[in-house]
Amino acid sequence: MIDVLIIGAGPAGLSAAIYVQRAGKHAVCLEALTVGGQIVNTPEIANYPGIKKTSGFEFSMGLYEQATELGAEVVYEKAVNISKKDGDFVTTTESGKEFISSAVIIATGAKNRHLGLDKEEALTGRGVSYCATCDGAFFKGKDVAVNGGGNTALEDALFLTNYCNKVYIIHRRDEFRGEPQNLEAVRNKENVEFVLNSTIAELKGDKSLESVVVKDKNSGELREIFVQGLFIAIGQEPDNQGFESVVELDPSGYVAAGETCTTKTPGIFVAGDCRTKEVRQLTTAASDGAIAALAACTFISS
Ligand code: NAP
Fold this sequence. Notes:
about 300 residues, 17 strands, binds NADP nicotinamide-adenine-dinucleotide phosphate, seven-stranded mixed β-sheet, alpha/beta, single chain
């Protein structure tokens, strides 16, 4: 019997685990992939209050050690369903295991959004990637493209300029969501070309990526850009469908919840990027983790 089962061991889930353990309850985190979630691939974090500069990996490992040294457990299983049984919650995993707990915190984060193009799946790992820090080094001396206009795309592009011959930034608008400092840093690089107001219409290549065809949104003109790598950084989307029977999802699939992190089911809480919110940052994920954990502990004790 677990006090608080936390689904996800990213910044929100591990922050929740720290607060649950410090409140004298036992936390178990279920993690489908890697501890740390998406932040593990971020080369540099420079906006977390109190930490001037660190890497996503170092930050994640710090969170993991802090949570587990306090007694939290991480189990590598993908949760697919939550149901209620005799006042407790039963969380079922993809492999068929069941975890019974007094409260549940959903902290599933979000997964990389795909473009939905033909060949996108087939060429993933053959030139198409969603993680520049993981795969960038394979493209040393080559021409690559980054798609997107957020901080991830800008940071990916900046990172890739260190390895690659040329980096195209393909973005559907001419304004960027990413921070001005990131944009400025990319603009200062000589081996970057911006391809703006443009979307990717086609991926070409059979065994591996050979080129991308981009469409200018204003003129409708098509241009073929020859690149061996394409880093898709067009944001994230949630992965909460399995929990629809116990929580309400908003039209985009995020768990509908406010700053209290409570859901329509007493005893089930939600934290981090997987819930409806305006600002999805490390700081807000950690904040949600603390709020959800304390609410879960209060629920158990009441
Ligand atoms: P994001 O901020 O949501 O940006 C996604 C980008 O992809 C946007 O420019 C968007 O274009 C574009 N896009 C979305 N769907 C598209 C589609 N179907 N086709 C083409 N383009 C598409 O995502 P993110 O960059 O991954 O960042 C996520 C969050 O993490 C943000 O809050 C970001 O600030 C944060 N983050 C912070 C840091 C840091 O502080 N060091 C690093 C990375 C990420 P539009 O702009 O036209 O909508």
